From TrEMBL:
Keywords, ordered alphabetically: Antibiotic resistance, Cell membrane, Membrane, Transmembrane, Transmembrane helix, Transport
Protein family: Belongs to the multi antimicrobial extrusion (MATE) (TC 2.A.66.1) family. MepA subfamily.
Gene Ontology terms, MF aspect: antiporter activity; xenobiotic transmembrane transporter activity
Topology relative to the membrane: Multi-pass membrane protein
Protein name: Multidrug export protein MepA
Pfam families reported in the protein's UniProt record: MatE (PF01554)
Recorded GO CC terms: plasma membrane
Signal peptide bounds: none
Annotated compartments: Cell membrane
GO BP: response to antibiotic
Protein species of origin: Marinisporobacter balticus
Amino acid sequence: MDEKKRDMMSNEPINKLLIKFSLPAIIGMLVNAFYNIADGIFIGHGVGPLALGGTTIAMPIMMVMMAIAFTVGTGAASAISRRMGEKNIEGAEKILGEAISLNFMINAIVTVIVFLFMDQLLILCGATDAMMPYAKEYMRIIAYGILLNSFAMSTNNYVRAEGNAKVAMISMIVGAGINIVLDAIFIFGFDMGVKGAALATVISQICSAIWLLYYYIKGESILKIRILNFHLTKKNVKEIIVIGMAAFFRQIAGSILMVIVNKSMVKYGSDYHLVVFGIINRFFMFMFMPLFGLAQGFQPIAGFNYGAKKFDRVQKCFQYAAIYASIQSSFAFLVMLLFPKVIISIFTKDPKTIALGVEGLSMMIWGLPFIGFQIIGSTLFQAIGKGLESLILTMSRQMIILIPLVLILPLFIGIDGIFYSYPISDIIATVITSIVLVKEKKIFDVKKIQQEY
């Protein structure tokens, strides 16, 4: 890292630095999330509600793919940030090379598994007879883009870790923009249905991957991709996986949760309840992308300053990030509270789907104001290399609390229990996050940590 960027990371006011790093990530992720919204709109209006449900069925499989990219991406990004904070550029480049190699190897195996067992996987994810044709048609094409999509998603983290958040943002905008345009052309222009939506996604992933690869090839990056660094070492792979494990379990937990919810929606409700869940889930993702963008901007700053032993700046960065995250999650809550019918109507004009959607949304939103704090708390531990604490916080919401609630509450109050499980788990997870932060408060005790070093 050159001295100018090192000085910026070490001395620039934290609030200004957090905005500088987070804003490009937020913009890029919002654009990316808008693609997901547009994809749902095009499929919902251009093909129909059941086709939209078919893509919801495919989502758990896609989340497993994302889990691998996020595991390697966030784990390596944390290691890269800390090594750059320690002025160890050679070590940072070694992490970069091994991360690319590790990501490719794992996702090559995943691609083969998806093609060999596609029908079984979709049935496992809750596919009904009505939705199976749409889910299979969509997934068959999406699978071709697994390797490049995973490369683009993970590499965004490496680029951001070396201080080039703008490049990462542009790669997301390029991919999302191409996806939206091709969605409209393939679905409405060529009448290709869900096949068109999937093809648009794969092409956009290819474009994002090419953009990021070009960034490294043309020599503008601080870190260089060197073939010699592709050789995996036990020490670095372990570090990447341990630190990234929280991101992995967050995505895997989300995938398992979606499988359970998909099946429960059909069991206690109908195919249309599953469609509604898919719509609400898409809008949730859109409204909370700023939180994930903020977390991505927060992580390299906290990681760098922790590596540089500037613990007072780590503390201040966490405080600002937690405040901004709480404001954003409260804003999302108000939007969904005030405009539920408008939100559902964006995706479909079917009266039955709209009525069920408004009802479901009104039950799911009550824990939203607390999510921001929980996400930043988990990201803090990930940034400073405390993977176990981050993993505990990540697992507490989805695996430990939410999944049991989704399985138990419907036994007593029917399908409403699935929707109410979300706010209950959000509130409990926030309490757990607060407890873990209090117990780990030595992170913020500057004098104590400096004595330990």
